[in-house]
Amino acid sequence: ILNYDIMARFRRRTCIILLLFILFICSIMMALKTLRPDRAGFGDPFGLGLLPELQQRTVLLDSKQNLVNRAQGDTVTRVSNLHGIAVNTMKASMSSVKKLEEEFSSPNYNFHIFYYTWYGNPQFDGKYIHWNHPLLPHWDPKIANNYPKGRHNPPEDIGANFYPELGSYSSKDPTVIEAHMKQMRTASTGVIVLSWYPPGMADENGEPTDDLVPVVLDYAHKYNLKVTFHIEPYKDRDDRSMYHNVKYIIDKYGSHPAFYRHKTSTGRLLPMFYVYDSYVTIPEIWANLLTVSGSQSIRNTPYDALFIALLVEERHKHDIHRSGFDGMYTYFATNGFSYGSSHHNWASLKAFCDSNNLMFIPSVGPGYIDTSIRPWNNHNTRNRVNGKYYETAFSAALLVRPEIISITSFNEWHEGTQIEKAVPKRTGQMVYLDYKPHKPNVYLELTQKWSEKYRKEQEQWLM
C-alpha cells in the first residue's frame, strides 16, 4: 500500500512538471512569434521601416495590404487594374463618407484649386518620379557655376523645401488620392483643376498621367468635388491639337458626374479649361479655335467650353481678348513676380475683364519658395508669415469681387505653394520648412475660413 501511494504521488508530480514544461515552451513560442525582425522584406508586414511614406499611414496598412502586394507586380498590370481597385476600395468605405459628409462644410464650387498627379515612388511606380527633381541651372553660366548641380535622392532628400505628411508618395496610390480629396473637401474648395497632358505625353521630369483621370474623377465624386482640366504646354500645342484634346476630354470624361461644368450668365452649362502658358501661342492661332469665324472654331459645337488664359504681362490682356478666350487667371503665388500676380493690379484687370465680357480669376497662394530645385531663385521667395501672406492674398482677391478664385496650389511641392499637410523633418544637414507653430492642416483651415467669408460677401454683392 505504501509503495502504491509513493508511485501515485510520483506520477502526479511528473504530470505537473510536464504540464508546466509544455506551458513554458508555448510561452516561448508565442513570445518569438510576436518579435519583429530587424530586416524584414518589402512583402513582410513588419518592413515598415523601409517605407517612410507608409510609416505615417499604419492605420491604412492592414486594410490595404492586398493592394500594396498587388502594387509589387507588373507595372502595366498595375495601371490597367488601378481603376478597378479604386472602385472596390470606394465601395467599401462609402458608408463612412456619408457620416463624414455631415462633418464637412459644403463644397464651394467658386473655389478652384490646382492639383498635380505627377509624383511617383518605387512601391507604385518602380522608381521615384518628381521627388527626385533635378537642380535646374541658371541660364547665365557664370551664375550657374556658383550653385550645386545634380538630383535629389528620395525619400529623405526630396525636391521641395517642405516635407509632406504622407511622405514621398505616389499619385497612383488610391489611399493618397482619397486623402487628398478629403483634405480638399475639408478646406471647403469645390473644383479640382487637374494638371493634364494628352495621352502619352508628360512634363520633362515626369511620365504620362492621363490614365489616372478616371480614378481622380471617382474619388472626387465620392467627396462631392468636381474636376476641371489645366492643359499644360505640351510639344506642338496649337489650334488643331487643342481641338482634338478638348474633344477627347469631353468624349471620354464629360459624362462623369464629377466633370465640372460652369453655369454662365446666360444659363448655359459649359466645361471649363485653364490653359497654362497660353501666351506662348500667338493670338491668331488661338482665334482659329476660339472665335466663331475661326477655321478650327469650337464655338457653337458640342465641344464648346469656357477657356481661361494665363495672364503674366499687362499686354497679355489685349492678346487674350483678341484670341477669343473667355477669361484670364494669374496662377503665380508670388505677389510682385509678374504684372498678373501682383495684387495691386487686380482691380484694373477686373475692370478690363468686366468691360470686355471676360472672367477674371485671381490666383491666391500661401507663399512661394523653389530653392530646392532653383537654388539661385531666392529673390522670388515669399515667406508664409504663419499664414498672413495667404490671408492677405485672399483679402486682395475678395476686394475685386471675382466670380471664381483659384488657389495655387494643393500640392505643387517644388515651388512651395502647397496647402497640403506638411510636417517638420530634419535629415542630416537638411532641415525642411514646416507650418509651426501651427498644425499640419493650418492652410486647409484658413482656406475653409476664407471660403465661408467669400460666400457671405458674395451674398452681399448679389443683393
How is this structure best described in words?
By secondary structure, the chain is α/β, with parallel strands linked by helices. Helices cover 40% and strands 11% of the residues. It has 14 helices and twelve strands. Strands 1, 2, 3, 4, 5, 6, 7, 8, 9 and 10 form a ten-stranded mixed β-sheet that branches. Helix 11 links the parallel strand 6 and strand 7 (327-329). Helix 9 crosses helix 10 and helix 13 (388-399) runs parallel beside helix 14. It is elongated and about 115 Å long. It comes from Prunella fulvescens.
Q: What is the element layout, followed by pairings?
A:
Blueprint: H1 2-34, H2 52-55, H3 58-71, H4 75-101, E1 108-115, H5 122-125, H6 141-144, H7 174-186, E2 189-196, H8 213-222, E3 226-231, H9 239-253, E4 261-263, E5 269-275, H10 283-290, E6 306-310, H11 316-323, E7 327-329, H12 346-355, E8 359-361, E9 363-364, H13 388-399, E10 405-407, E11 426-427, E12 430-431, H14 442-462
Parallel strand pairs: 1-2, 1-10, 2-3, 3-5, 5-6, 6-7, 7-8, 9-10
Antiparallel strand pairs: 4-5, 11-12
Helix pairs in contact: 4-8, 7-8, 9-10, 10-11, 13-14
Organism: Prunella fulvescens (Brown accentor)
InterPro entries: Glyco_Hydrolase_99
Enzyme class: hydrolase
Low-confidence regions: 31-79
The structure class reads alpha/beta
Termini distance?
Answer: 110 Å
Query: Based on the structure given, which CATH architecture is correct?
Result: Alpha-Beta Barrel
DSSP helix count? 14
Number of domains: 1
CATH class: Alpha Beta
User: Count of DSSP E strands?
Assistant: 12
Mean pLDDT level: 87
In the CATH scheme, what's the topology name? TIM Barrel
Helix amount, in percent?
Answer: 25-40%
Order of helices and strands: HHHHEHHHEHEHEEHEHEHEEHEEEH
